[in-house]
Amino acid sequence: MNKIAIKYGIFTGFGVILYMLAFYFYDKASMRSPEVIWSTMILYLVGMFWATLKVHRMEGSSNHSIGSILENAKNEEKESSLRNLVSTPFIVFLITNAYFIFFFWWIMNVYDAELLQIHQELTHQEMLGFHKGSDKISEVRKNVLDDYTPTFGASVTKYVMGAIGGFILSFLMALVVRRT
Fold first, then answer.
1. Which of 17, 19, 90, 150 yields a CA-CA distance of 20 to 30 A from 11?
2. Residue 134, SS3?
3. Rounded Cα distance, 13 and 5, in Å
């Protein structure tokens, strides 16, 4: 079952990178926009869903109604099935997110200094807008553009924090797919 998750994670990761590259070649600033970054989540969800559905079908699970799920709640085989159904999309998420985080860090810090400058300027403007009218606005105004450079350590931290959300999405997806 993990082979399926790894395969779908790799394909989904490449899909996310191609999606981001399409925006990069169209307009560098748009690639960095929150709308584009958050819209990659659609690709994550599609990859996670198809992998989970494939694992569910391979296990030969039948259609479960709410009543049958409640009746068989103590059945260890069903619990194992739920574990597989949660781990599959979670592995897909982790692999895809690793591709995304590494690509985002690499393109700005290694490949394109102009994109890094665009990112720094946009992030500074976003931070000024976000903290407008608050006590932190004076601190944000003191920041220099280099303060907004994505570091490898910050990227790893984002990856770990993203894993928490990925697990929640995986659990919800497993519940949905299990009922199909």
1. 150
2. coil
3. 12
